[in-house]
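To fix ideas, we reproduce below a protein record of this kind.
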Amino acid sequence: MKKLIVGQSGGPTSVINASLAGVYYEAKKVGFDKVYGMVNGIEGLLQDRMIDLDDYFSDKNNLELLKRTPSSFLGSCRFKLGNMKDNEKNYEKVFEILDKHGINSMIYIGGNDSMDTVESLSDYAILKKKKQNFIGVPKTIDNDLPITDHCPGFGSACKYIATTLREIIEDNNVYGNTKPTVAIVEIMGRHAGWLTSSAALAKDDTCEGVDAIYLPEIPFNVDTFVEETKELLKKKSNIVIAVSEGIKTEDDQFICELGDSNLLTDSFGHKELAGCAEILSKLLKEKLGVKTRSITLSTLQRAAAHLASKTDLDEAYHCGMKGAELAYKGESGKMIIMNRVSSDPYKIKYEVFDDIHKIANVEKKIPLEWIDVDNNNVKQELIDYLKPLIQGEVKQIYKDGLPQHIVLK
């Protein structure tokens, strides 16, 4: 019998379950006899926690519901296996459990750190002559995986951000010139500003757009920020500014650390960033004497399945399908990527990148030539890159006025 296990890792997205649906559908189609799901990623696998996905998705209606369900159906984790030399017991435990259940292949859906897990297990299997193979399916709203043109989950987050910014702009203008207000909107993005750049999509013939965008690719100067906002207020009374949570000073200090220098870190050593909008909001109120408002989108930008991009959902699904196809062939240490053929008309190809080592733990940032540094904005090239990714709406399945989801029991 051929058996596959699939897991989800890292921060969820509104379409990560579409990739899971694609894996399951194609795995059954190509000939896997069993498809298991690991509960809470590799951490759950080490505890031998898994489910038979046939119990949920042999019913095609449930598979469609899964595609429309936000967050990670199987649960997630931020667990690092560690290097082979010092943590060999973790690796041996993984293969012991895979052997116990007769599992031949593993697919891991995730971002940078998840691809680190795929890399590590694939390398260990080769080193120890294990029979299992390991495939990565990309996922991250941060869009910071290299090689692939973009990542599933990113387009839907962009659609939510642009939509929400447009609504915030309208709300901020409600009092006209009678009550000058500066709203600062904090958007996810540690070292790469892809998500924050999507704030530029709010602008069209009916909306004036945000007044400034600050990205982590460009060093942030607090004094300059105050002066730039002061100049904006001379031109108009109501300002909306988009900032990445990861903006930092020339000497590499995160702005959010100005309020708390003892930020918590996860198992991969990443600081838990939050609070820069509030810090900057208080600063402007103190320095300029204007009404300010800080807005943090936080998990909303990755959980808003009701505003998912159909393009994004379809691409997530097909990446999952391609991953299952590759796993059945016995390939290992590889990741599914999307290669953009053209932006107008938009067309991509699903391909396989052969060396996971060039993807794991590598961050892709916005090309500097796509950033309008002088005007605190982005250039048309970046807008042209982003716009196709937010196209199309997903028809939700409603009951009693609310969208329906499927959950793990």
Remarks:
- The chain has a mean pLDDT of 94.
